[in-house]
Amino acid sequence: MFGTSHFSISREAVNPEIGSERRLLKPRAQSFRQWSFVFAIVISIVWGLVSALSAGAQPLDRVVESLLENQCSLFEAAGGDTVGLANICGQPPGAGTSSGGGASTPQTAPGIVQERLKEARGEEVDAEAGVVSEMVPGLSLLLSAEYEDLDRDTTTFEDGYDSDIKRFTLGADYLFTDTLMAGLAFTYYNHDGDFDSGGDFDNDSYGLLAFLSIIPHESVFVQATVGYASKEYDRTRQAALKIDSDPSLGEPFDESGPAEGGILAGYDQRMGSLTIGPRLGLDWIYNRFDGYSEQGDTGLELVFEETDEFSLQGRLGLMGSMAVSTGFGVLLPQVNVDWVHEFENDQRIENFSFVDDDAKVKFQYEDEKPDRDFFEVSAGVSAVLPNGWQTLAQYRTILGHDYIDSHVGSLGVRVEF
For the segment 318-332, what is each residue's pLDDT rounded down to a tens digit? Predict the structure, then answer.
């Protein structure tokens, strides 16, 4: 802030000899006040420009709105070409708004794969429960379907959404010995939803997932997964321009190829038909998002640069299961509780520009910071049936997350040959 400077000489100190000096000081003081006012305006404009360029702690919609305020004064000051944005920059202040953030979801291995890794440790073998299936070397096929209700709350940096995920898995594995099993699965999932402030998205993924289970010592196991997928993102971001009070939409298209992997180790203590044990794991996922340009004719369409993200999550948990003999087979109810901690996936600064800006001046915004700690809880039951058949039903949810609610239901079947 700049205060007004005052120059004065007390009346008692004035005499004819210095009266001329007093008369000269008054216009200088007025001139200084005028230049101070001009200087303050310049500093305010520069500060606003720097804030818009750096987007320090600002979400996308807030950055766009600040650039378009006052007939795009900050945008033009940054060197942007307002000719292509004439229909926006000629509007009254506050004429443009933009909304719709990125859509992402926590990823875990399909439930049927997790169950198969558990089976490879021989957890369903319990003589007291009347086992109907033995762990013998051979080939198995597995198939599963999952449905997830995934909702994200609106936060400071990203828009919220309501979404659904459908995932299908088809795979095969081979049990080489009673201590070594390996398999490969094809996965497909579709993730579609609606943003809280308008717009929607539809994502498709096709991938391969390899999995391995090793029992180095009795009651101790180590299992690992690694996968790669090709993803296609189709997102509609709503942008509003107060001309006819009708919203206009930009339609971006984005592709990325994520890689993911994980390792889990644990110890199983069997007490009759009950099995309980601790779990310690590490999961990672790397996503690369291609740059893309939005489509539309509103003038609010944006160009997003290529970016990537890396997530590294550690988990510490406890598993409990019980073998219950029935007339048609063995039921295995089970519960898992994991504490998950995010080590990476820090808040990122992303670059964008306006499609209609021939100067292609780049601006920045920030995405949401991660929730470092939350819980993942799953409960389900599998049935070991005669002739090498097995079925699975499972429910999984996330608890204690700051802005994500997830509920997953899955059904699966496996058959041995």
Answer: 999 999 999 999 999
